[in-house]
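Saturday, quiet lab. Running sequence design on the structure tokens for the scaffold JK sent over.
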């Protein structure tokens, strides 16, 4: 709770090109939930440097992601949209929470295992303690709900464990957050290998739909998506490729699985894939147009970058001061 309202926090990394998975699993839900909560949407640039980044490129991507939040329909006047690095409380609380998190817990994180396998030449301490910074992000804002894709559930469980552990020692300091997982689109799979999630870091261009893909590329990727030798548009574990396309379609158009199955009964994969492509274009095209428009509004965006960094810092520092006092740091002299 913040100022008597339930609060919501989520973040995205400014690395790679955002995919349809990021949109349907996370960003779309941000937009739906914005009116119900006091919201904080962060561009987690500090998390991004756990993997080596080109500085100019990171700065550009961070700005683009912040602009994209607004282009997707998040009102920057009502939602606190900001950069993690503009609010020093994140790093400060992360340090404290590091001292309340066990090596064993962090060693079990699947994202750490995956990323250290992928970046074997740079298994840095930041990559290991990444989930603690994420816990700090969330706990700073006394967050009630955290909209994320399924792949972030393990980090969220750890965040809850850290909050409960801290509260057990020092009393009720943190709100214990809940994950919000959307009904459809919480785990969009690769179009080329539907047993793995769609990822921005996939080397196969055809595996992911990027948010900035032009319509013809979207249509082409959907038509080439891996399905099976059957022709039936049906949801099921035995049909991962088709089920993924059904998820994409229904998530774009807010339909149920049954509705989609009925709509394409006896129509075959060709017609279905074409419709999926069109559904994706109908969602992404307006987003792209708005992004292009907003990218030229430098002063407008800058105003919110400043204003929201201050707002985030105000609330975050309240929690941070409380924590510092609880753990025994000396009082500030005013
Ligand atoms: P990478 O793909 O490089 O591992 P990422 O896309 O998982 O990175 P973020 O950009 O930080 O990392 O993810 C932002 C949000 O998008 C998170 O809530 C995450 O759960 C969600 N998300 C990412 N991929 C998918 C997917 N394929 N389906 C649904 N949600 C996803
Ligand atoms: N770990 C997330 C990004 C992230 C996040 C957060 C999400 C960092 N801090 C706080 C929700 C809440 C990822 O890799 N997708």
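Result came back. Writing it out in full:
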């Amino acid at each position: 709770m913040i100022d008597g309202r339930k609060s919501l926090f989520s973040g995205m990394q400014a690395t790679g090109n955002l995919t349809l998975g990021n949109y349907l699993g996370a960003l779309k839900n941000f937009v739906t939930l914005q009116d119900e909560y006091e919201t904080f949407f962060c561009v987690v640039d500090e998390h991004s440097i756990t993997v080596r980044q080109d500085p100019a490129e990171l700065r550009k991507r961070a700005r683009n992601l912040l602009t994209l939040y607004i282009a997707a329909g998040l009102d920057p006047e009502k939602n606190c949209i900001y950069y993690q690095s503009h609010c020093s409380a994140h790093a400060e609380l992360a340090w404290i929470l590091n001292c309340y998190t066990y090596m064993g817990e962090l060693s079990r994180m699947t994202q750490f295992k995956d990323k250290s396998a992928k970046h074997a030449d740079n298994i840095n301490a930041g990559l290991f303690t990444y989930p603690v910074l994420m816990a700090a992000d969330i706990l700073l804002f006394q967050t009630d709900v955290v909209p994320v894709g399924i792949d972030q559930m393990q980090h969220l469980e750890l965040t809850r464990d850290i909050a409960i552990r801290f509260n057990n020692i020092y009393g009720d300091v943190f709100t214990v957050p809940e994950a919000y997982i959307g009904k459809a689109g919480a785990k969009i799979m690769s179009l080329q290998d539907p047993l793995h999630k769609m990822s921005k870091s996939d080397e196969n261009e055809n595996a992911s739909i990027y948010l900035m893909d032009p319509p013809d590329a979207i249509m082409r990727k959907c038509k080439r998506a891996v399905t099976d030798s059957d022709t039936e548009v049906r949801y099921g574990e035995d049909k991962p490729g088709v089920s993924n396309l059904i998820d994409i379609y229904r998530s774009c158009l807010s339909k149920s699985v049954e509705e989609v199955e009925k709509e394409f009964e006896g129509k075959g994969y060709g017609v279905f894939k074409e419709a999926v492509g069109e559904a994706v274009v109908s969602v992404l095209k307006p987003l792209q147009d708005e992004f292009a428009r907003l990218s030229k509004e430098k002063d407008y965006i800058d105003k919110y970058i400043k204003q929201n960094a201050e707002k985030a810092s105000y609330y975050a520092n309240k929690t941070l001061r409380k924590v510092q006092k609880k753990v025994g740091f000396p009082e500030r002299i005013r």
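Notes for JK: The two ends are 28 Å apart (CA to CA). The chain has two domains: 7-180+298-327, 215-292. Ask whether to fix the surface positions before the next round.
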